[in-house]
């Protein structure tokens, strides 16, 4: 049994020890001694062998990584989360009371709608929320009661219309009860209801803001078992 004086490695085989020692001695010895052709040949052969061994190990590790199962996030949602209410039901269940109306009035159409959505989302169990967003996809994904799918800006716009109708109904009911359609609150609601100028751009801003606020890493969502495609 032989022990290397430089790295303390122990070898049972004398030939293996000699090959190791030739290289280890060069790495640790600063003296520029001239080596024999035999020693030099031994070192080169050992380095070539070590390189081949490392190349095999790298290829093996790469094959393990490449064998990671690919997964489509929407397909994963459809296979694993399908016993919750639809996003349409989620929106229909939104009840606008004085507090929510005040929230929208104080923040304006764009920020008000964003804050309203986030307030409602924060009250939902994450597993029950029919709305998802992932870093790997730059769009919102909704559940329609049957399947999960990408929600387009046009689809999102229709849901915002539903909320605007709720605001109109709230305004009309409040005005009838107070007998005053010209009150400051009614007028403020009226100013906000239709979204003002550049409504389409505001809808896109609301969409993107909600996406940015609720997005998570898809790999974490699927327990890091899959490669997202």
> For the terminal residues, how far apart are their CA atoms?
53 Å
Secondary structural class: mainly alpha
Uncertain spans: none
| Strand order across the largest sheet | 4-5-6
List SSEs in N-to-C order: EEHHEHHHEEEHHHHE
Supply the number of helical segments.
Answer: 9
Total number of strands: 7
Radius of gyration: 33 Å
Helix content: 55-70%
Largest sheet: 3 strands, antiparallel
The backbone outline, from C-alpha atoms, is rod-shaped
Key features of this structure:
mainly alpha, 2 domains, 61% helix
Task: Describe the fold and architecture.
The protein has 229 residues and is mainly α. The protein folds into two domains: 65 residues, no CATH class; 159 residues, no CATH class. Helices cover 61% and strands 10% of the residues. The chain has nine helices and seven strands; from the N terminus they run ββααβαααβββααααβ. The strands form three sheets. Strands 4-5-6 form a three-stranded antiparallel sheet. A two-stranded antiparallel sheet has the order 1-2. The protein has a two-stranded parallel sheet with strand order 3-7. β1 and β2 form a beta hairpin. The longest helix is centred in the N-terminal third of the chain and has 30 residues. The radius of gyration is 33 Å and the shape is rod-shaped.
């Amino acid at each position: 049994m032989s022990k290397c004086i430089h790295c303390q490695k122990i070898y049972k085989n004398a030939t293996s020890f000699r090959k190791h020692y030739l290289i280890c001695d060069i790495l640790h010895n600063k003296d520029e001694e001239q080596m024999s052709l035999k020693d030099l040949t031994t070192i080169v052969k050992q380095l070539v062998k070590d390189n081949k061994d490392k190349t095999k190990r790298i290829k093996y590790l790469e094959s393990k990584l490449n064998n990671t199962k690919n997964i489509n996030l929407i397909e994963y949602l459809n296979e694993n989360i399908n016993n919750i209410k639809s996003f349409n039901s989620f929106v229909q269940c939104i009840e606008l009371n004085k507090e929510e109306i005040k929230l929208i009035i104080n923040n304006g159409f764009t920020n008000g709608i964003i804050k309203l959505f986030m307030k409602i989302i924060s009250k939902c169990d994450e597993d029950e929320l029919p709305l998802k967003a992932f870093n790997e996809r730059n769009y919102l994904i909704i559940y329609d009661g049957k399947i999960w799918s990408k929600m387009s800006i046009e689809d999102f716009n229709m849901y915002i219309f539903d909320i605007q109708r709720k605001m109109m109904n709230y305004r009309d009911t409040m005005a009838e009860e107070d007998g005053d359609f010209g009150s400051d609150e009614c007028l403020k609601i009226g100013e906000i209801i239709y979204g003002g100028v550049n409504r389409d751009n505001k809808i896109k801003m609301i969409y993107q803001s909600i996406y940015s606020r609720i997005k998570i890493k898809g790999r974490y969502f699927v327990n890091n078992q899959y490669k997202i495609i």
